[in-house]
């Protein structure tokens, strides 16, 4: 556990908490030590990014599928709530973009893939 904490740049307590709430996957060694797969380092970094963006651990758990989520029938999905969340995200992104330099904006634009743009457009069409 301390090796993962050191490599991920967080405390052992953080790793322990994330494990206890099901955000991290681990196995036990024969001597009862926690063994984490290497990809858990990336997961910890991603969890920390999501927390900085304002997400709760339960929201993060839903995103990575560690929480059992009952799928709702289409009729029960609150489209209005989804639209409000998308508007909030759009406002947050706009505010963030205002703080970036032109070079940072160009760098960010280069990282957006055509697939992600297509996905965003499909979501917008779906929710209209």
How do the helices and strands line up, and which of them pair or pack?
Layout: H1 2-8, H2 12-20, E1 27-28, E2 34-35, H3 40-52, H4 57-64, H5 79-99, H6 102-111, H7 114-127
Antiparallel strand pairs: 1-2
Helix pairs in contact: 1-3
Describe the protein:
By secondary structure, the protein is mainly alpha-helical. It is 64% helix and 3% strand. It is built from seven helices and two strands, in the order H-H-E-E-H-H-H-H-H. The protein has helices at 2-8, 12-20, 40-52, 57-64, 79-99, 102-111, 114-127; strands spanning 27-28, 34-35. Strands 1-2 form a two-stranded antiparallel sheet. The longest helix has 21 residues, at 79-99.
What are the main properties of this structure?
7 helices; mainly alpha; two-stranded antiparallel sheet; 128 residues
């Amino acid at each position: 556990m301390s090796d993962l904490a050191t490599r991920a740049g967080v405390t052992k307590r953080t790793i322990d908490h994330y494990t206890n709430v099901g955000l991290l996957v681990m196995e036990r060694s024969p001597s009862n030590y926690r063994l984490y797969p290497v990809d858990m380092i990336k997961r910890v970094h991603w969890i920390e990014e999501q927390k900085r963006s304002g997400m709760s651990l339960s929201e993060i758990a839903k995103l990575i599928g560690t929480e059992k989520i009952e799928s709702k029938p289409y009729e029960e999905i609150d489209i209005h709530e989804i639209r409000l969340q998308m508007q909030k995200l759009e406002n947050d992104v706009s505010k963030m973009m205002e703080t970036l330099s032109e070079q940072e904006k160009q760098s960010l634009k280069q990282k957006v893939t055509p697939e992600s743009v297509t996905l965003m457009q499909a979501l917008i069409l779906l929710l209209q």
